[in-house]
Amino acid sequence: MGKQMTEMLKGTLEGLVLALLSVQPEYGYEITARLREMGFSEIAEGTVYALLVRIEQRGLVGVEKVPSEKGPPRKVYSLNAQGREYLEEFWRTWSFLAERLQQLREGGK
Question: DSSP readout, 73-96?
Fold first, then answer.
């Protein structure tokens, strides 16, 4: 991943994670694995875990500790009502930006 991709991803990773959680609850490693499957191969687990702590503190997700076959219980994250509202705002903002960028790409039409 180039520097430009890394910088752009910083501003959108939260929305990407919330979008994944809108489909189904997951724990940190699963989220990282799904992002990597989508082509974000250089995202570090630590980056995802730090983001999960932040969105938990902001009240955007619910957290349930689920027993693990290996080691301590896992924290499974699910999108709550506040998180869904935030995600809807994220998509509205994304659409606005994508439309404007496309206009610029087409010569400002």
Answer: PEEEEEE-HHHHHHHHHHHHHHHH
